[in-house]
C-alpha cells in the first residue's frame, strides 16, 4: 500500500508506474483517492476545530457556573450541544471515507524498481545468468511420473480416490528423498544464519490482506468455512504476519527466518503433460526464507536471497538460471522479483522452482511493521524467497541425476539425509 502522501505530492509518479505495469485503467482510482483524501482532510480539519471549541467552551461553562452566571452557562451548553451534534455528523462520515480510501489504495501496485524491465507478461522476462552444464544425457529421459513409479515412489490413482485430482502419495525412496531434501534445506539455511521457524499453517484474514493482493488471495487461498482463517499458500505469509503491529529498534534488524511447512493452493491446472503428475498440485511442502530489514538494506538482501537458492540447487547437481521478472509479471506488492528456474533434461528447457521478491514497505504498511531509527520511525522492508519446494523440485532432481539403467545418483550433500545411500534403484514389478 502506497503512502497517502505520495498521492498528494506526486500522483504522476503513481500513474507512470501504472503505465509500466499495464494497469492504466486504474488511473481513475488514483484521481478518486486524491479527491476522497481532500474531502477527508477538510472534514477532519472541521472536526478538530469543533473538538477544540467544545473543549474550550466546556471549561468556560464550569467557570460561569462558579461565578453564578447561570444564563450565560446555559447559552454555552446549547453551543456545546450544537458542536457535538455537528461533530457526530462528521464522525459518521470519517470512517466510511477512510475505509473507501484504503480499499482503493490496496488496489494500486507498489512502485517498481527503476531497473525492472518493462514487459506485459512472463514471456518478456529477462535472463540474468545460468549456472551448471546442460549437456544432453545421451539417452531418453522418461516422464517424471514414470521415473517415480519405476522407483516404487508414486501412487496417483489412490490419491485421486482419496482426495481427487491434484494430490499424490509419495512412497519408499521417493518419499524419503522428499523429506531428505526439506531437512537438508533446513540445515543449509540454518548454516547461513537464518532462524528456523515452524509457523502456524492457518492465518487470519487480516494477515492475508496484509501480505497479498485481493486477486492473489482469491486465486490461491483456501478459506476455512465458518472461521476467519485461511490455509497458508506459503509459510512466508505466516512468518511476515509474525511481526504484525510491531515496532523494532533498527539495531535489532535484520530478522532472517527460514521455515518448512505444508502449503495449500487452489491453483491447479493441466497445461500439458509436463504440468500434470506432481508439477502443479493443491498440496506441497516448501522451505521458505524471509527477511525483515531496514529500508536501506533491502536491495542488498534481495541479492543474497536469490543467490542462496542458486547455491542450494547447485549442491544437488541441478543446473539453474535466474530470470528478472518484467513489470507486467510482478505481483502488485512487489517492487522487484527474480525467478530461479531448474533445468529439465527431458524438456530441454528450464522451469520455475522458486521466486525471490523485494516488497519494500508494501506489506509493512498494511501490517504496521515499523522500525525505530536514529532519524525517526519508518516502515520496515520485507523480502521472501523459496529455498526449495518439493515435489516439483524433485522432477528436476530425478531427471538430472538419472542414470541410463534407471537408477538415481544421490549427490554427496544429500547422502547423510538418505542413510548414506549413494543411489536410488528401480523397483522390480
Rg from alpha-carbon coordinates:
28 Å
Strand residue content: 15-25%
Q: Characterize the main sheet.
A: 8 strands, mixed
- Unreliable stretches covering 5 or more consecutive residues: none
Average pLDDT taken over every residue? 92
Class of secondary structure makeup? alpha+beta
Question: Considering DSSP H and I runs of 4 or more, what fraction of the residues is helical?
Answer: 40-55%
Calculate the terminal CA-CA distance, rounded to whole Å: 57 Å
Number of helices: 13
Widest sheet: strand ordering: 1-11-12-13-16-10-9-4
Secondary structure topology:
Blueprint: H1 4-9, H2 11-20, H3 27-66, H4 70-105, E1 126-131, H5 144-150, E2 154-155, H6 156-162, E3 169-170, H7 172-191, E4 195-197, E5 202-203, H8 205-211, H9 214-220, E6 222-223, E7 230-231, H10 235-241, E8 246-249, E9 255-264, E10 283-293, H11 298-315, E11 320-324, E12 336-344, E13 349-358, H12 362-367, E14 369-373, E15 376-379, E16 381-388, H13 392-401, E17 408-409, E18 423-424
Parallel strand pairs: 4-9, 8-14
Antiparallel strand pairs: 1-11, 2-3, 5-7, 6-7, 9-10, 10-16, 11-12, 12-13, 13-16, 14-15, 17-18
Concise synopsis of the structure shown:
The chain is α+β, with helices and mostly antiparallel strands.
Amino acid at each position: 500500500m502506497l503512502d497517502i502522501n505520495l498521492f498528494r505530492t506526486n500522483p504522476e509518479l503513481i500513474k507512470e508506474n501504472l503505465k509500466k505495469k499495464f494497469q492504466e485503467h486504474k488511473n481513475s482510482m488514483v484521481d478518486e483517492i486524491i479527491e476522497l483524501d481532500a474531502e477527508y482532510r477538510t472534514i477532519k480539519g472541521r472536526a478538530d476545530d469543533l473538538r477544540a471549541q467544545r473543549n474550550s467552551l466546556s471549561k468556560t461553562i464550569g467557570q460561569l457556573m462558579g461565578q453564578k452566571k447561570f444564563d450565560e452557562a446555559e447559552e454555552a451548553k446549547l453551543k456545546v450541544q450544537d458542536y457535538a451534534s455537528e461533530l457526530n455528523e462528521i464522525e459518521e462520515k470519517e470512517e466510511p471515507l477512510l475505509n473507501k480510501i484504503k480499499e482503493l489504495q490496496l488496489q494500486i501496485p507498489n512502485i517498481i524498481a527503476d531497473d525492472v524491465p518493462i514487459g506485459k507478461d512472463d514471456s518478456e522476462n529477462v535472463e540474468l545468468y545460468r549456472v551448471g552444464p546442460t549437456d544432453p544425457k545421451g539417452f531418453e529421459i522418461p516422464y517424471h511420473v514414470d521415473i517415480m513409479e519405476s522407483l516404487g515412489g508414486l501412487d496417483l490413482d489412490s490419491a485421486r480416490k482419496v482426495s481427487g485430482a491434484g494430490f499424490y502419495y509419495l512412497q519408499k525412496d521417493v518419499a524419503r528423498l522428499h523429506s531428505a531434501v526439506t531437512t537438508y534445506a533446513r540445515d543449509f539455511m540454518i548454516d547461513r544464519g537464518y532462524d528456523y521457524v515452524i509457523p502456524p499453517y492457518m492465518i487470519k484474514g487480516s494477515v492475508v490482506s496484509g501480505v497479498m493482493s485481493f486477486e492473489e488471495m482469491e486465486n490461491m487461498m483456501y478459506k476455512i468455512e465458518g472461521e476467519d482463517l485461511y490455509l497458508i499458500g506459503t509459510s512466508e505469509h505466516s512468518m511476515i504476519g509474525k511481526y504484525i503491529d510491531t515496532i523494532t529498534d533498527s539495531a535489532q534488524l535484520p530478522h532472517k527466518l527460514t521455515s518448512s511447512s505444508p502449503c495449500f493452493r487452489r491453483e491447479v491446472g493441466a497445461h500439458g503433460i509436463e504440468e500434470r503428475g506432481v508439477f502443479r498440485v493443491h498440496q506441497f511442502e516448501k522451505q521458505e526464507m524471509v527477511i525483515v530489514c531496514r529500508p536501506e538494506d533491502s536491495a542488498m538482501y534481495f541479492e543474497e536471497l536469490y543467490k542462496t537458492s542458486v547455491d542450494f540447487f547447485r549442491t544437488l547437481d541441478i543446473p539453474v538460471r535466474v530470470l528478472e521478472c518484467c513489470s507486467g509479471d510482478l505481483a502488485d506488492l512487489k517492487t522487484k522479483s527474480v525467478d530461479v528456474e531448474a533445468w529439465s533434461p527431458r524438456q530441454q528447457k528450464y522451469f520455475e522452482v522458486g521466486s525471490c521478491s523485494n516488497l519494500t514497505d508494501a506489506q509493512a504498511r498494511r501490517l504496521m511493521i515499523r522500525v525505530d531509527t536514529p532519524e525517526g520511525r519508518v516502515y520496515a522492508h520485507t523480502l521472501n524467497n523459496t529455498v526449495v519446494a518439493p515435489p516439483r523440485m524433485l522432477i528436476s532432481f530425478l531427471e538430472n541425476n538419472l542414470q541410463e539403467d534407471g537408477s538415481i545418483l544421490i549427490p554427496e550433500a544429500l547422502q547423510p539425509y538418505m542413510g548414506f545411500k549413494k543411489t536410488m534403484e528401480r523397483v522390480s514389478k
